[in-house]
Design goal:
Blueprint lengths: L1 H17 L7 H28 L17 H5 L4 E5 L5 H14 L3 H13 L4 E7 L7 E9 L2 E13 L5 E7 L13 E8 L2 E6 L3 E9 L3 H4 L1
Antiparallel strand pairs: 1-2, 1-8, 2-3, 3-4, 4-5, 5-6, 6-7, 7-8
């Protein structure tokens, strides 16, 4: 009986031990982690390859450049005349040099000298206006100002050629229908360094600077 009881106890202990799973060793856990990392890396590589196979997007076409602005557009603005600026012109620069030399360091004497020089030049200017006798024609009109009233001295047909945007050649033709004054050259250039400055190199007085003036002839139209 004592031997039989010992055998029963041994059998029970053996059954309990067989039902408990063995714990994973540290080596097994490391191997599983490495395999998972390899699978994740392979997935990333596949995704990268597939994205590189996609065609590159076409570059958007460059915006079209704005049309070139012509000097004619500025010169023929409706209601705009261009007045002679004595101080900025060659005649004014020469007068300034002469007056500074004559007056020395006397500011008052210099101011009187310049005032006298500028009064010797009549206020004057020019404009372009539509030629009613021609669909696309223009007239070059030069004038002097008596009091507040502009008086035309030249009125002649004009054509714009070789317009670069900063310089244009004016060719005149036909009879001058103005009220007198110096004749207008058959061809001359107008420089347009900016929207507020025009330069004409005139044979009689060299560089002449003109600046825009709006509404000068409005009174005559009323």
């Amino acid at each position: 009986m004592r031997t039989f009881g010992a055998l029963v106890v041994l059998l029970m202990l053996g059954g309990c031990g067989g039902s408990t799973p063995a714990a994973d060793s540290p080596a097994d856990e490391s191997k599983s982690t490495a395999e998972a990392d390899e699978q994740e890396g392979a997935s990333d590589a596949t995704a990268s390859d597939s994205s590189s196979d996609e065609p590159a997007e076409k570059a958007e076409p460059a915006e079209e450049s704005a049309p070139k602005k012509e000097a004619k557009d500025l010169l023929t603005q409706e209601g705009t005349s261009y007045l002679y600026n004595f101080a900025k012109s060659e005649a004014g620069e020469k007068a300034k040099e002469k007056c500074e030399k004559a007056s020395g360091d006397d500011a008052e004497k210099n101011a009187k000298c310049m005032s006298k020089a500028s009064k010797g030049v009549k206020p004057q200017g020019f404009k372009f206006e539509r030629d009613k006798e021609s669909e696309d024609g223009w007239l070059f009109v030069r004038f002097e100002i008596n009091g507040n009233r502009p008086v035309e001295t030249n009125r002649i047909k004009a054509e714009f050629v070789d317009d670069t945007g900063t310089k244009v050649t004016i060719k005149t033709q036909g009879p001058d229908k103005g009220r007198g004054g110096k004749g207008v050259p058959a061809s001359f250039e107008i420089e347009v360094p900016d929207d507020y400055t025009l330069i004409i190199n005139e044979p009689a007085r060299g560089k002449s600077v003109y600046e825009p003036k709006l509404g000068l002839f409005d009174e005559e139209k009323r």
